[in-house]
């Protein structure tokens, strides 16, 4: 079995809308390990709804979970991280040390947008990215604007943004638009990371294996290795990640063939 890196999973008991208790958190970790995952960007939400979720609380939760995993003999490496809500003053919050980067390494910030609202992240990106902080857009396929507006997601990647998609959007896409869009992004090199976006051991379990297998069938083992392991390891260890520009979008009959295969 290929080992995987989950770049987006809520594993901290009682900290946000993830597992309710230690038993659920450990059950999620067992599922992740059985799926082939060995390294996890374990996140908690940082937004107005979870104002008490500070970097220090996430660090403490990660340390506690790491000890529990060792006690249980579960060989899963946890990296303290956050899923940060995009807002106009995000760069100020970052400068004040109020936001946690992926793996607490100071190099990559996982961002999401408010529900049912697309906010152009490029103004904030123009401040943070040149300063050495790369921005990863969580579950990018959730935003209809990125699926429908030609050239928008390509523009984000060209400006230095990195793209994470959820495993469930590959195995059980929520709409035909999501299915077509994610397939096209994968084929064109727009997807850089896979995440489970796990929240519980039941409805939103941290399952990655089936999505990985489908990516292999779609784009080949080498590209799947980059998306599901290599890129994530680079980020988790604070290394610079250079990604090639996206392939051009096909047009006409090629576009139909590209999205259907």
Topology of this protein?
Layout: E1 4-10, H1 22-34, E2 37-46, H2 55-72, E3 77-85, H3 90-95, E4 108-112, H4 122-128, E5 134-137, H5 144-148, H6 152-158, E6 162-166, H7 168-171, H8 176-187, E7 193-195, H9 209-219, H10 221-236, H11 252-260
Parallel strand pairs: 1-2, 2-3, 3-4, 4-5, 5-6, 6-7
Helix pairs in contact: 9-10
What's the short story on this structure?
With 261 residues, this protein is α/β, with parallel strands linked by helices. The chain is 41% helix and 16% strand.
Structural description of this entry:
- It holds the Pfam family CpsB_CapC.
- One of its GO terms (molecular function) is protein tyrosine phosphatase activity.
- With 261 residues, the protein is α/β, with parallel strands linked by helices.
- Helix content is 41%, strand content 16%.
- It is built from eleven helices and seven strands.
- It has a seven-stranded parallel sheet with strand order 1-2-3-4-5-6-7, with helices on both faces.
- Strand 4, helix 4 and strand 5 form a beta-alpha-beta unit.
- Helix 9 packs across helix 10.
- The model has no long low-confidence stretch (mean pLDDT 95).
């Amino acid at each position: 079995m290929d080992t995987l890196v989950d770049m987006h999973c809520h594993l901290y008991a009682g900290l946000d809308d993830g597992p309710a208790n230690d038993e659920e958190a450990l059950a999620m970790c067992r599922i992740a390990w059985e799926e082939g995952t060995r390294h996890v960007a374990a996140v908690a939400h940082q937004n107005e709804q979870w104002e008490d979720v500070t970097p220090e609380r996430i660090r403490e939760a990660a340390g506690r979970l790491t000890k529990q995993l060792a006690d249980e003999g579960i060989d899963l490496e946890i990296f303290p991280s956050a899923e940060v809500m995009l807002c106009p003053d995000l760069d100020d919050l970052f400068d004040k040390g109020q936001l946690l980067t992926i793996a607490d390494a100071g190099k990559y910030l996982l961002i999401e947008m408010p529900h049912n609202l697309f906010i152009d992240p490029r103004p904030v990106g123009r401040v943070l990215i040149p300063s050495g902080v790369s921005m990863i857009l969580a579950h990018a396929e959730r935003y209809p604007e990125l699926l429908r507006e030609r050239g928008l997601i390509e523009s984000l990647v060209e400006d230095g943004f990195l793209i994470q998609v959820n495993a469930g959007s590959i195995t059980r896409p929520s709409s035909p638009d999501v299915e077509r869009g994610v397939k096209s992004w994968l084929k064109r090199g727009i997807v850089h990371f896979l995440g489970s976006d796990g929240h519980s051991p039941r409805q939103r379990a941290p399952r990655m294996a089936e999505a990985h297998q489908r990516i292999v069938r779609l784009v080949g083992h080498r590209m799947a290795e980059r998306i599901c392991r290599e890129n994530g390891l680079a980020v988790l260890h604070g290394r610079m990640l250079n990604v090639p520009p996206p392939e051009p979008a096909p047009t006409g009959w090629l576009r139909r063939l590209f999205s259907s295969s």
